[in-house]
Specification:
The structure is a homodimer. Chain A has about 400 residues and is an alpha/beta fold. Helices cover about 40% and strands about 25% of the residues of chain A. Chain A is built from 16 helices and 17 strands. The first copy, chain A, has helices at about 10-15, 20-35, 50-60, 80-85, 95-105, 115, 155-175, 190-200, 205, 230-240, 255-265, 280-285, 305-310, 315-320, 325-340, 385-405; strands at about 5-10, 40-45, 65-70, 90-95, 120-125, 125-130, 140-145, 145-150, 180-185, 210-215, 215-220, 245-250, 270-275, 295-300, 345-350, 365-370, 375-380. In chain A, helix 2 runs parallel beside helix 7 and helix 3 (about 50-60) packs across helix 4. The two termini of chain A are about 50 Å apart. In chain A, about 50% of the residues are buried. The mean pLDDT of chain A is about 90. At the A-B interface, helix 1, helix 2, strand 2, helix 7 and helix 8 of A face helix 1, helix 2, strand 2, helix 7 and helix 8 of B.
């Protein structure tokens, strides 16, 4: 049986806008990798009546309900008392969990409070799931054909319990959907342009789904919409039509693709960033093993540091301005020299909201790429707010680097 | 009347884990700033039956329903046809929207496709809302006492329509809740430690809510739970008890606080990053005006670049290793010299998953802070995955800088 899976995120902090809900994203991705898809997702306030309502609705429509949050030690953590009330269960002290909590505090040499003791209470008939990385145990409770898992909201704890206990249980007890979703990651093309280029492919109307993001566009072939063979053909044909706009068909991020290409070609990288302010370096160093190819990044935010650290000639600023092809080129060359790398990339531009001039609007960026064979520059224009501009600018320069590495020139 | 507000995010891309739902966060924060709170949030697949079910449930329980996504030009954008079906409306061509779409394509000198023409269709009885930054108009539709707003899913378009049209209408037509939520942002303290320190305050049980995140903890005083005067007293008392663990009571991020302190004290900053890989610089440059105090950041990922760019003496690596207090100190001093700044901060550590040794586990970090008066270092230990370690490490070094600037030493 392929289960109907529902996620309930508990926590006023999301409805209040304090926290981004990263837990659902993690669970959804891991489930998809295992061949399961999520049908319902909702976010519920730490309010007992709302929680009871959500738990009852979930028990009616879903086979598996994954609940995160509200297991903490504070007075606004109400998940367990709400589930006990929703299904008429009393709370019992789980001795094993209490011993583990006590051990944890002893090991960290910290005093244990009454509020932590409360975290060992679980509904009768449920089973505590060991939490090796925190105080609150996870809980599994089966209610008339629906299986509830309650997990802590702290992402590291949720991930550990989900990966080590929940997902293995689901994989062994339920049948995964057979067709995995195939994806094509593209960048540097608009959604409607992309759509118009591939919509005529046979079966495209039912099979393709389109997902825009600051990291580009994802075209996904939907699970179950077409046969595996037709899906493979559609994928091949779409990749052919989209050409070098495709950076990944495996789900890898652009920084992962760039990292792999650098590793394969045994090339090292230097970076000079102005308008992207460290984001290019941050993205590349999110990939484990980046120290194998990334030598040095320079965030030369002031003109003086562009001169002093990267050796950009001062007359370039006077003649062309800091946001210019000439300065982008000099920055890339400087980063290559300073870091001693094979290749260097650079960004200089206006992220906004300030800094625009009549001829240089917010969102304007020049990118540079320097190798032993010479230096090239690109002029790009974006039109969003500061954070999205930084994101799109970083995407562009990483894509320039990818194309360079793929062509092997 | 204080309205019951519901958000429905349409899009298979969120249930598939392709995209993070940033739209709900933006709307929630803006609504809260205007004195409104959101009661329901759900994410619905681009599936006509699921959409119809969600729209009908929302019409029953909510006064205002904010729907984003599914207005795009592709075949999997089904929001408008689903709402027409849910409430028995036909679709009519909105001439004004069509003219605007045609204009937009002419201005960008791009061919307009049939799929873009489809974006001018709106349900009968609804009103199109001008979209100055994209093709799909927003739509307002009133159904038996419930007001629906349909907005594009592209964040920049959604933000424009929401800020310029939706929020002003809500503010003029509905009564906002009177008490704004006050918040205390803290860092460097665990949730249960914080809870135990302030839970005894009179009224704390009802009034405080606790929100952990990689950027620290937020203690919020809940809207309506206590009188404005009691809320102000609780806030003052909690801030006094928590002392220098509090970095903000205005909702500002740590990088905003640090930026303001640097500006006020007319001090400039240099950065040397190893394990944080550019994240410290990225966060600081997310704040508009960062170019006023940030001179230069060096991401010295290789030992050679630590020597070459920052001037770290090579024997320090042999005697203490790259992850050591001595190297952190030399990096901070080098960053101060290279960038010519008043203050410099540094990070060196093991973000993981690789790179650990028997005496230096994953998550170990040394931070350095150099001024004209000398250099200090800190040893910190984290225990998460690579991305969360980078996040917590960046938070720690920014907090070290904040404390230094606040003490004025």
């Amino acid at each position: 049986m392929t289960p109907v899976i529902e996620i309930i995120i508990v926590g006023n902090e999301i409805l209040c806008g304090r926290t981004i809900d990263r837990n659902s994203i993690h669970m959804i991705r891991e489930l998809e990798r295992a061949g399961f898809s999520v049908r319902h997702l909702c976010v519920v306030d730490d309010d007992t009546a709302d929680l009871i309502h959500a738990f009852k609705a979930a028990a009616e429509r879903s086979d598996v309900v994954l609940v995160t949050g509200g297991l903490g030690p504070t007075s606004d953590d109400r998940t367990i008392s709400a589930v006990a009330e929703a299904f008429g269960k009393s709370l019992v002290l789980d001795d094993r969990s209490l011993v583990k909590i006590e051990e944890l505090f002893r090991r960290h040499n910290r005093p244990m409070s009454e509020s932590n003791r409360r975290q060992a209470l679980i509904p009768e008939g449920s089973r505590a799931i060991d939490n090796p990385v925190g105080t609150a145990p996870g809980i599994r409770l089966d209610i008339a054909g629906t299986r509830f898992y309650f997990l802590p909201g702290v992402p590291s704890e949720m991930r550990t319990l989900f990966g080590e206990s929940v997902l293995p249980e689901l994989s062994s007890d339920f049948e995964a959907e057979k067709i995995q979703t195939a994806t094509i990651h593209v960048t540097g093309i608009s959604e409607s342009e992309l759509y118009d280029r591939i919509k005529h492919l046979p079966g495209a109307g039912d099979a393709f789904a389109y997902y825009p993001s600051p990291e580009g566009l994802v075209v996904s072939i939907k699970t179950g919409a077409v046969s595996p063979m037709a899906a493979a053909e559609l994928l091949t044909e779409a990749v052919r039509i989209l050409g070098d706009r495709v950076y990944s068909t495996t789900g890898d991020s652009l920084e992962q693709v760039v990292g792999r290409l650098l590793t394969e070609r045994r090339l090292t990288l230097g970076i000079a960033e102005s308008c992207t302010g460290g984001l290019v370096s941050h993205r590349l160093t999110n990939v484990p093993g980046a120290s194998g190819y990334l030598l040095c990044g320079i965030i030369a935010y002031s003109n003086e540091s562009k001169q002093r650290v990267l050796g950009v000639a001062s007359d370039l600023f006077e003649r062309y301005g800091a946001v210019s092809a000439e300065v982008a080129a000099a920055m890339a060359e400087g980063a290559r020299t300073v870091s001693g790398s094979d290749i260097a990339i650079s960004t200089t531009g206006i992220a906004g909201p300030g800094g625009a001039t009549p001829v240089k609007p917010v969102g304007l960026m020049y990118a540079g790429l320097a190798t032993a064979d010479g230096t090239k520059t690109w002029r790009l224009q974006f039109a969003e707010d500061r954070l999205i501009n930084k994101s799109r600018m970083s995407q562009s320069v990483l894509d320039i680097l990818r194309i360079h590495l793929e062509r092997g020139t």
